[in-house]
Design goal:
This protein has 348 residues and is mainly α. Helix content is 78%, strand content 0%.
Length: 348
């Protein structure tokens, strides 16, 4: 980043002013990139236009311009990558937040269902305990009534025995009074117990009816939920089948309809025949050049390591970088050039 800032500030350090730099750029842009000897031509033109500047100053300014363009490109790539990474990070954060919200909502729903189930179980447990207590009270009351009846029978037998033994009328009256009093007390106790027993049986009957209705309601609710789940599963299967049908229809629309023809596939095309000069003799004669050219063929040009290196850099997108300009002059050809053909462009 420090290198980028340093390179972006070359206009403040270059020796040419803003107007001279604009003229310099206009002269350089007049020569296309594929022109042979482009650099030599525009340097010669710049020396003619700036006779007070040395060739070394012009080359130094050219290097400053190349570094400035490289730094601007690197800064653009850096900002583009930063914006892309920031956008990806925001998308991932939003997706993570959505997933967390869905998980939290699911967990809260499960907690509510679990709490409701626990409350229902506690209610049922309390009712079972109450029913057991009622059952125990009913059994106790029945046992007490039975014991009192048995005691009554025993007391009656005892009194009858005493009655037979007692001959006096006074004793008989006392026995009758005592029996009447005892009978009244037993009747009151029996009526009270029978009334309580009837109330408990009525309460237990009503509770059993309510429990059956509640069990029936819970069963219907469970069956309804099962039916809804089955309908949702069937709907999902139906949607998957419709999606499959649509994809199959699209696949049929873009299916290959060409017939299999191996002879046509393996035969030469018209372009290949024209390239090899088959069946176009008349056209070849018409397009025959007027003069014979003595030059290099494709194989001879490609055999030059400088050409191969330049093609590799161009394929990688590095042919306009500072590295390419530094490395290309250092590659020597297969054969040394003649002294009269030696270039002096890179000897500055």
């Amino acid at each position: 980043m420090v290198y980028l800032q340093k390179a972006l500030s070359i206009h403040t350090n270059c020796q040419l002013g803003e107007e001279d730099h604009w003229i310099y750029q206009a002269i350089v842009d007049q020569y296309s990139g594929d022109l042979v000897g482009r650099r030599t031509l525009y340097l010669d033109m710049l020396q003619r236009y700036y006779p007070h500047k040395s060739r070394h100053d012009l080359v130094k300014h050219e290097k400053y311009c190349d570094q400035y363009r490289f730094a601007r490109e690197q800064r653009r790539i850096l900002l583009s990558n930063w914006n892309k990474n920031r956008k990806d990070f925001i998308q991932k954060a939003v997706l993570t937040l959505i997933e967390a919200c869905a998980t939290h909502e699911m967990e809260s729903t499960l907690a509510k269902d679990r709490k409701k189930q626990q409350e229902l179980c506690a209610d049922l447990k309390a009712k079972v305990i109450q029913w057991r207590a009622h059952q125990e009270e009913v059994a106790r009351l029945e046992m007490e009534i039975s014991s009192r009846r048995r005691e009554k029978e025993e007391e009656k037998k005892k009194l009858w025995k005493e009655k037979e033994l007692l001959q006096r009328e006074e004793k008989k009256k006392k026995i009758r009074k005592y029996w009447a009093k005892k009978e009244q007390k037993w009747q009151e106790m029996e009526m009270r117990d029978l009334q309580r027993l009837e109330e408990l049986k009525k309460l237990m009957t009503e509770q059993s009816v309510k429990d059956r209705e509640r069990v029936k309601y819970r069963q219907e609710l469970l069956e309804k939920r099962l039916i809804e789940k089955k309908e949702a599963a069937l709907q999902e299967v139906h949607e998957d089948e419709e999606r499959t049908h649509r994809l199959e229809a699209l696949r049929k629309q873009v299916a290959v309809v060409a017939q299999f023809d191996p002879v046509r596939m393996m035969s030469d095309t018209m372009a290949s025949k024209a390239r090899m000069g088959i069946e176009i003799e008349e056209e070849f004669i018409l397009q025959k050049p007027l003069f014979t050219l003595n030059t290099y063929n494709e194989q001879q040009i490609i055999s030059d390591p400088r050409i191969r290196f330049e093609l590799a850099l161009r394929k990688a997108g590095l042919h306009k970088t500072f590295y390419a300009r530094e490395m290309l002059p250092k590659i020597s050809p297969q054969k040394p050039p003649r002294k009269d053909m030696e270039s002096s462009v890179f000897k500055i």
